[in-house]
Amino acid sequence: MKAFFAYFTLAVGIVLAPLAAVATYHNNFDSDNGGWVADAAWQWGSPTNPNGPQAHSSPNVWAVGLTRNYDDGVCGHLDLSLGAEVYSPNATLEFWYWYQLEQNYDGCNVKVSVDGGNTWGLVVPQGGYTGITTGAWWCNGNHEPVWTGITSGMQWQYAVIPIGGFINQTPIFRIEMGSDGSLDYAGFFLDDVSIRGVGVELNFEPPSLAFDVQDVGSDTTRSLSLLNETRQSIAVHSVSHALQAFTVDTSGLNGAVQPHSTYQMNLTFAPTAIGSYLDTLVIVAGQPDSVYRIPLSGEAEILLPPVDSLVIKRGTGNNMQLNWAAITHTISGRPFTPPYYVIYGATTVAGPWVPLDASPTNSYTHVQFVLQPEYFYRVTGATEEGMRENRKSQIGRSEPGR
Ligand SMILES: [Ca+2]
Ligand SMILES: [Ca+2]
C-alpha cells in the first residue's frame, strides 16, 4: 500500500451583470413633466381619452388628446432644451409613442433647432415616418413627412431618432403635431423619453472588472478607464465600494476627468479568504449628478499542501478503510482546514476517476468493495460536499489490501 498525494483547489464561476447604458436624459413623465415646455395643444398627465391608450408607463404621459380628441386647426409644439451639447456621433432621441390622426391631413413629427429656436429642421426616425401631408401641413404650409394615420396594431411603438449630426451643437428638441380644419381623432401620445450622447457623461472601459488570484494572500491589479468624450470637464464627486478585498487608487484624478481625455483608475483585489467576491464600484459624477455602477467580481483560489499519509486497509466484510492526515494550511497567518474531503476511485491510474463520496473527517469507509487486482483512490480537500473535480491533483497509486 502506498500513500498518494492530492492538491486542493477551489474555482468559483462568476456571473457578470452588464453595465446598463447610461442615458443623459431619461424621463417617464410619471413624477414630473420632464422639463418639456408646451403650448395649449399639449398636456401632461394621466390619459383619460376613451379613444386613446393607457400610459406606456403609468400614470402619466405627454399628449395632444389627453382627455378628449384633439382640436381641428391645431399646431402644437412640445419643446425640450437641455442646454447640453451633443458629444457622440451615435447620439439618439428615443421615446415611446402612440397616435391616431387623420390620415394624410393631420400628423406629427420631430424637429431640432441648433440656433436657439430661430430655425427648425426635421429629424427622421429609423424606419422613417408613415406619410407625407397631402394637404397643407397646418403648421407651416409645407408638405412634410409625418406620423399619420394609426400606429401599427394600435400599439405603443418605439422611435429611435439619430441626432449625431448635431455633434458639438446644442439642440432644442420639438415634437410638432398639426391638424387641418376638419376630422379629429384620439391624438398623439408620448412617454418614456431617453436622449443619449448629449450632455456630459462618463463611459467606462471595461464596463465590469473580474479578478482572479491563484492563492489567498496574493493580489492582482486591473485598471478601469474613465472616458470623457465631451468638451467639458466632468466632476467626479465620489468613488466608493463595499468590500475590503478591493481597493481603489484614485491618485491623479483630482476630482475631475478633463475634456476629451481618459483617466485610468487602478483597482486591486487582495482577498484574505477563499471564495467568490461580488462588489459594485459606485461613481458619482457629472452635472447634474449621475450614479454609475461598475460590477466587480473576484475569484480567490487556494493551493493546499498534499493530502498525505493515506493508509488503505481491508476492513470487515468487503469494506475498505481509508485514513489520511488532515490538511491544515495557513492563510494570512490563520490555519485553514477544509470542511470536507472528496474521495475518488478508479480501476486504472489514468482514470476515469469516479467520485465515491465526501467525508467531513479524515477517514472514509468504502463499503461493499469488490476485490480487484488493483484499485486506486484519490482524496482531495473540498469546501463543500460533492465539490467539482480537482483541477490540480497529483495522482498517486495505491493497491487494495488483502
Ligand atoms: Ca409615463
Ligand atoms: Ca383633421
Bound molecules: calcium ion
Number of strands: 30
Distance between the termini: 10 Å
The poorly predicted ranges are: 1-22, 385-402
Could you say which overall geometry the principal axes of the C-alpha atoms support? elongated
- Percentage of residues in helical conformation: under 10%
Mean pLDDT across every amino acid position:
83
Residue fraction in strands: 35-45%
Series of H and E elements: EEEEEEEEEEEEEEEEEEEEEEEEEEEEEE
Q: What's the tally of helices?
A: 0
In the CATH scheme, the class of the largest domain would be Mainly Beta
CATH third-level topology of the largest domain: Jelly Rolls
Describe the protein's architecture and organization.
The structure is a single chain. The model is unreliable at 1-22 and 385-402 (pLDDT under 50). The chain has no helices and 30 strands. Strands 1, 3, 4, 6, 11 and 13 form a six-stranded antiparallel sheet that branches. It has a five-stranded antiparallel sheet with strand order 2-5-12-7-8, with no helix packed on it. With 402 residues, it is mainly beta. It folds into three domains: 25-196, Jelly Rolls (Sandwich); 202-300, Immunoglobulin-like (Sandwich); 311-382, Immunoglobulin-like. The protein starts with 24 loop residues before the first strand and ends in a 20-residue tail after the last strand. One calcium ion is lined by residues 28-30, 55-57, 60-61, 191. One calcium ion binds at residues 72, 102, 105-106, 179-180, 182-184.
